[in-house]
Amino acid sequence: MRRVVITGLGVISPVGNDVQTFWNNLKNGCNGIDFIKSQNVDNLTVKIAAEVKNFNPADHGVDAASARRSDLFTQYALAAANQAMTDSGLQIEPERLGVYIGSGVGGLQTFYAESVKLYSEGPQWTSPLFIPTMIANMASGHVAIAHKAEGPCLPIVTACATGTHSIGEAFRAIKHGYVDAIIAGGAEAPVSPLAIAGFTNCKALNRCNDPQTASLPFDKRRGGFVLGEGAGVLILEEYEHAKARGAKMYAEIGGYGNSCDAYHYTAPKPDGSSASRAIKLALKEIAYSCNDLLYINAHGTGTPLNDTSETQAIKLALGETDAHRALISSNKSMIGHMLGAAGAAEMVSTVLTMKEGIVPPTINLNEPDPACDLDYVPNVAREADITVAISNSLGFGGHNGCVAIKKL
After folding, report:
1. Using CA atoms in the order 142, 143, 145, 147, what is the torsion angle rounded to 10 degrees?
2. Using CB atoms within 10 A as the burial measure, which of 255, 331, 351, 354 is most buried?
3. Selected catalytic residue, list 153, 160, 372, 402
4. Could you tell me if 269 and 147 lie in one domain?
5. Is position 153 annotated as part of the catalytic site?
6. 3-state secondary structure 6-72
7. 249: in domain
8. How many CA atoms lie within 13 A of 59 on its CB side?
9. CATH number, residue 68
């Protein structure tokens, strides 16, 4: 089978709108969570989120016409994809380039705004662009247009596992020869009163309105996740194609696992058995051994059930000894939960963790939960010569995804 490497990175996030700023802030434990500035949340219980700051589409090569016809999640995707393509320097035949950029909820801000308009002003004022702006495939569609990608265009929707599944499925498509390169990742812009109220009432969000102590992965004080937004995009490319053009290669993708709990529509399977299967599949494919130093970018949402079940999944997949030896951290302690973009942004972080040999911390981890007893790199980054790294994502609906990378 053909080998697949990562040749470009792009990100729009609560801690930075370019890769270097994003990475520097993660290494330094900077918190991107704050009181919501973009919406009126006076009547909402939860008033904090991990919002993208100071985003101007034009700063990222997104023209005014494209921005006007796009929901914010699509603008984020275009911006991150432009960064990644510039970073990669990829030149390729259009039919050999694909786009796999998914979204968990799509154009929720457009959906909310047009719904308010419908009820306040009447149906005749509904925008003719409502449907093509709102539907979740439009991030992929606009990125394909922008970069003349005429290969497969597959926007995956698996809730919080979307970004990871997009990267994993892109890996398989290149590995099996369907294309030579794919622009892969996820994008999300869910910070709206409708989403905040919905997630609050289904008891997913932490109701603490202190931005400094709201996102607490693996801490016994945790009470739910913090809503985040942004986009992560990676350029996946066939190794020989990348080599022939002298491309910079960050890492090799060598494994992918995909499984379903088939248990509950929101809660994870408590014993972690299905999630562990996704981890095992990814590690088996990449030929992980006990001689490797493993880093795990955990899903780590800060919800009571997720963190204990993910800890169980890691132990089941690795065994107790290797599980306790692995270095684990949750970016969500700093960037909140970016839903469909989470796995993609976290894979950008995972790639840089391996490249630079620095594991970003899990901040706010001051009171460890006895049920979460692994090494989550609390509060301070750590130097480590990582040889294999995985990124986990677990989504509503029981979706589990794991992508594994290694050094070239």
Report:
1. 160
2. 331
3. 160
4. no
5. no
6. EEEEEEEECCECCHHHHHHHHHCCCCCCEECCCCCCCCCCCCEEECCCCCCHHHHCCCHHHHHCCCH
7. no
8. 8
9. 3.40.47.10
pLDDT value of position 16 = 98
Q: Per the residue annotation, which of 299, 372, 399, 402 is the catalytic one?
A: 299
Contact call for residues 200 and 46 (beta carbons, < 8 A): yes
For residue range 246-255, list pLDDT tens digits in order: 999 999 999 9
Asked whether the predicted pLDDT for residue 185 surpasses 90, the reply is yes
Q: Is residue 148 part of a domain?
A: yes
Where is the domain boundary, 244, 263, 285? 244
Q: Does residue 364 lie in a domain region?
A: yes
Q: Are 258 and 170 in contact (CB under 8 A)?
A: no
Residue 91, sorted as left (phi over 0), alpha (psi -120 to 50) or beta, turns out to be beta
Q: List, for residues 116-155, the tens digit of each pLDDT value.
A: 999 999 999 999 999 999 999 999 999 999 999 999 999 9
Range of the domain at 324: 254-406
Active site residue 299: yes
Do 211 and 358 share a domain, yes or no? Answer: no
Q: Provide CB contacts within 8 A for 263, sequence distance 6+.
A: 269, 274, 398
State the catalytic residue, choosing from 147, 165, 241, 337: 337
d(CA 217, CA 296): 14
Q: Residue 174: inside a domain, yes or no? A: yes
Q: How many domains does the chain have?
A: 2
